[in-house]
Amino acid sequence: MEQYIEVLQKNELFLETKEQEISAMLACLGYSIRSYPKGDMVWNVGTHIESFGIVLEGQAQVVREDYFGKRSMIAAIPQGGIFGEAFVCAGIRESPVAVVAGQDTRVLFLNVDKLLTTCESACAFHNGLIKRLVRMLARKNVALNEKLDYLGRRTTREKLGAYLLAEYGRKKSNPFLLDINRNELADYLSVDRSAMSRELSRMREEGLIDYWKNSFKILDFEGFQ
């Protein structure tokens, strides 16, 4: 577990926590680690869940499927990211979404009831963990509202423009790298992959953006208005 301490320190749940403290926390909370080859299901819709996951290696994708099996990606969870915490904290014990390994992936699972219940030894870190978990849930709510803003845009160009500007603001650099590939981006924005590619090409031809694979550069900010 020691090799993943630095990964956990990047997660908001363990932010500014020393290595020895993280080891003590995990010993108190109990945990399990599971490995998934790329494409394997971490959770299916309806899977019984009592724990949330932290990605130690690879990437996990939270996806939803409609009645006809069409898949839409809700979020891509990178190394150090967390998933499922909102469901288990809300008392939901059957997952309403699927989670897929986007790469060869290892996941640390923590039981939410153990985290939210102060242990007999009254570990000093428990209150801090709970506060950070509440903060994370609030941030996830903000991110959900942001996605709803993208989906509320009328055209593929408007959705792409809003997303790219938001990523530029988050990364604070130009050019910047997207954390997801084109297929995943199309799923996230709920647009057709081919139509999105055509729109990106038009935006480049018009001098709005330039890109190479997952690297994007905004050339004309005024043109996004």
Total DSSP E strands:
11
Strand order of the largest sheet: 1-8-3-6
**CATH fold-level assignment of the largest domain:** Jelly Rolls
Mean pLDDT over all positions: 88
The name of the CATH architecture of the largest domain is Sandwich
Count of the domains: 2
Roughly what fraction of the amino acids lie in strands? 15-25%
User: Structural class, please?
Assistant: alpha+beta
CATH class of the largest domain: Mainly Beta
Oligomer category:
single chain
Helix and strand run: HHEEEEEEHEEHHHEHHEE
Fourth CATH level, the homologous superfamily of the largest domain: Jelly Rolls
Please, could you describe this protein's structure?
Pfam families: cNMP_binding, HTH_Crp_2. The chain is of the alpha+beta class and about 220 residues long. It has two domains: about 1-145, Jelly Rolls (Sandwich), CATH 2.60.120; about 155-220, Winged helix-like DNA-binding domain superfamily/Winged helix DNA-binding domain (Arc Repressor Mutant, subunit A, Orthogonal Bundle), CATH 1.10.10.10. It has helices at about 5-10, 20-30, 85-90, 110-115, 125-150, 155-170, 180-190, 195-205, and strands at about 30-35, 40-45, 50-55, 60-65, 70-75, 80-85, 100, 105-110, 175, 210, 215-220. The protein has a four-stranded antiparallel sheet with strand order 1-8-3-6. Strands 2-7-4-5 form a four-stranded antiparallel sheet. Strands 9-11-10 form a three-stranded antiparallel sheet. The longest helix has 27 residues, at about 125-150. The protein is globular and about 65 Å long. The model has no long low-confidence stretch (mean pLDDT about 90).
